[in-house]
Each structure stands twice: as structure tokens, then as C-alpha cells.
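Note to self: keep these together.
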Amino acid sequence: MMARRKKTDENEDLGRWLLTYADLITLLLAFFIVMYSMSQIDAKKFGKMSRALSGALKGGSLAIKRGEDIGMAPGKGVMEIGHLMSIGRMIEEKINKPGDDKPISTEMSERGLVIHIVESALFRQGSADLEAKAKSVLEIVSSHLDGIDNHIRVEGHTDDIPINTIKYPSNWELSSARATEVVRYFIENKIVAPGEISALGYGEYRPIKPNNSIENRAQNRRVDIVILTMEMTRAEPASALYNP
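Structure:
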């Protein structure tokens, strides 16, 4: 009787060891994927990535209770970050051409993958009507959004030069209209379901560069497409009354 119990205990110890080893290997694989994806990211983006990676590691631990998994799977948060960064790199490679001004850039933040698209790639200055050339940019972005479950947040931004027209009394209205126009494109082309996407307008109050030169203002006039992490997605409000 004692010998049988000892053998059972040894099997349980071996099982625990194998689970720990598998968890470690998964994390190491995810780490190398992330490091490869970061090979061309500057120091500023590295800092943001480090904070995002730290949060993923904290939220990606594995808890076991006699055959029942509790919480996230091993390294799941890290793998998701690696996947989002891979999407960002593929989008940049397909849209940005060597030697030309880069209309798009991507970065990882604590929220998820942020895709910056400059105004000139989508709109005329002071307008919220998508230009014909915008369709090709959005088609490439759309090809990488199809099939993902993450919430998409589209954010409109302007520079600090005031606008005052009948249609857009301030930069708030212009930035909101631009974000909404991109959301409409994704919904009408059945890329994202209406309940899985949202639009925000920030006016001139979320610049990425100081508004002290023509070049910097051009970078601030942009639309950001944010692919939220699944952790952030779960925090998004949902309505039980919405039935797509």
C-alpha cells in the first residue's frame, strides 16, 4: 500500500515538473519572437514595449488545480504581444516604400498595437472625406484586422492650428469626423463588427511631436488605429441589448 502511494507521488511530482518546464519553454519562445520583432525598434519604443511586456508577464502566469487550468495559458500575454508586433511590421513593410515619406508607423504601447496614419495618406487638409488613395492604405490594414477578436479603437488627431468652418467649428469636430469615417469604412466593408470598434476624437490635445515646425505638425495630423490587447478588450463596455 505504501509502495503504491510512493509511486503515485512520484508521478505527480513528475507531472508538476513537466508543466513547469513547458511553461518555461513557451515563455522563452515568446521572448525570442518579441526580441526578433523589436530588432528595428528605437529606444523609445523599446521602453514602451518593456512596460507592456512586464504587464503581460504578470498577467500571463499559469495556475494548475488537479487537471484544471485557471487563468491565462502559459505565456499567452507575451505571445499576443509578439503577434501584434508582427502585424505592425507587416503593415509597415507593405505600405511604406523605400526613399519615400513614410505614411504609416506602428508601435506597441500598454494598450496594444498603435498604427499611426498621417493625414496626407487619408484626407485633404481640413477635410474628413477619405481620398481615393486612402482606400489602398485601409485595405492593407484591413487584411490584418480580419479574424481577430481584439477591440479596435480609431482615434482622430489634429495639430494646434485652429479650424473654424461651418462643418467643423473646432478641431474636436474634425478629429472626431475623421475617426468616424475610418470606422465607417471598416464596418461597411465588413472588416470589423460594429460592436467591436469605436471612434474617438482628441483634437490637438494628444500630439506625438511638439507643434513647432511644419514637419512635426504634419505628424500630429493623423488617425491612430489601436488594436487593443485582449486584457484591454475585456475591459471595454458591452451592451446586452445589442444583437448583431
